[in-house]
Specification:
Layout lengths: L8 H25 L4 H37 L1 H15 L1
Length: 91
């Protein structure tokens, strides 16, 4: 018997991006080991960065849409502190 966990849609999108980034990062390591031309590797690095930025945006959007709304109702000062922490980590 398996238990199915319902993952929110934004987190599913972020997970997909993270898995793609992981696969591309593995590809980058192989490209480096094979001494592939640097601009080709850099292009793949940029791809990973883009995927991780997208994952971060999806996670933040989902968090703001659900978790923060709930937390604001329960403990507004803590919610504000958490938002400031996330903001500071992003800059």
């Amino acid at each position: 018997m398996s238990i199915k966990i319902d993952i929110p849609i934004k987190k599913k999108k972020a997970l997909k991006c993270a898995r793609q980034a992981q696969g591309t990062l593995n590809k980058i390591a192989g490209m480096m080991e094979e001494n592939i031309y640097c601009p080709e590797i850099i292009q793949q690095v940029d791809s990973v960065i883009g995927l991780l930025k997208t994952a971060k945006k999806e996670l933040l959007a989902g968090h703001l849409d659900s978790c923060v709304v709930k937390q604001l109702a329960e403990n507004k000062p803590k919610a504000i502190q958490e938002l400031l922490k996330i903001y500071n980590l992003s800059n």
